[in-house]
Amino acid sequence: MDERLAIDGGKPVRTEPFPVRAPFGERETELLNQAVRSQNLFCHTGGMVKEFERRFAEHYGVPHAAASSSGTAAVHVALGALDLEPGSEVITAPITDAGTIVPIVYQNAIPVFADVDDGCTMDPRDIERCITDRTRAILVVHLFGNACDMDAVMEIARSRGLFVIEDCSQAHRTRYRGRLLGTIGDVAAFSLQQSKHMTTGDGGMTVTARDDLAQRMTLFSDKGWTRKPGWGRRTYAFLAPNYRMTELQGAVGLAQL
Ligand SMILES: Cc1ncc(COP(=O)(O)O)c(C=O)c1O
Beta strand 175-176 with 163-167: parallel, antiparallel or unpaired? Predict the structure, then answer.
């Protein structure tokens, strides 16, 4: 038997191209029509994004979710929620999308790269080696659907008083020892870009079970604008970007769920 790989002249396993991915169907069209007919595509006055956030959180069994415009935005929202002081070090992965790293730099924090293991996820021993007195958070990346060793990461983080952010952009609905990734650390971010498990074309979602991070998380995607009832005087609470999701993305996201 010829055991050579196809690239080396062996017999190809596939002779046809992979089917074109078609992630959208009737339900997306239905909800998009509904959103457009409502004459309102703004998340704060419409219902799609709010419902998408509510149901995404429910899906992960956490109380809080904040939608945003991309996975990069979702990671930024997670970091913004932590309110790190400038110069903080954030330990993260050297093999990932730039969307993991850019938000760290935008927050005037310093990315510090821990080596990855055979599964292409961060090696807890190297995370430990990277810790200094300026380390404030560990931003783990569950790359290629592979879960980081979260038991070890959480043990390190809890013993050193560090936050843990999970970048779940490539690991939607992935379980680690029975628990969904994104529900183990303090806060988690998901990309909803076209190539991801579920998609709104572009989009992001940040989730947390921590009530103390939830308000800042929501504010951070909306210029820090305290526009919700009960949030006090309407003002800009702190420096933050506008990462609002539109009702169009919200409609598609709901159908995808
Ligand atoms: C691990 C990881 N983090 C962050 C991102 C950024 O997501 P987006 O492209 O939606 O901004 C991606 C996107 O590919 C990703 O794979």
Answer: unpaired
Predicted TM-score of the model (pTM): 0.94
Q: For the domain covering 47-256, report its CATH number.
A: 3.40.640.10
What is the best residue among 69, 77, 92, 191 to mutate for testing ligand 1's pocket, by most ligand atoms within 8 Å of CB? 191
Instruction: Please give the structure tokens belonging to residue 132.
Output: 């200094």
* Dist. CA 240–CA 68, nearest whole Å: 13
Over residues 45-61, the pLDDT tens digits come to 999 999 999 999 999 99
Give the mutation target among 72, 95, 206 for probing the ligand 1 site: most ligand atoms within 8 A of CB: 72
Is residue 249 within 6 Å of ligand 1 at its C-beta?
Answer: no
Tens digits of per-residue pLDDT, 196-246?
A: 999 999 999 999 999 999 999 999 999 999 998 888 888 999 999 999 999
Question: 176: number of CA atoms within 13 Å, CB side?
Answer: 20
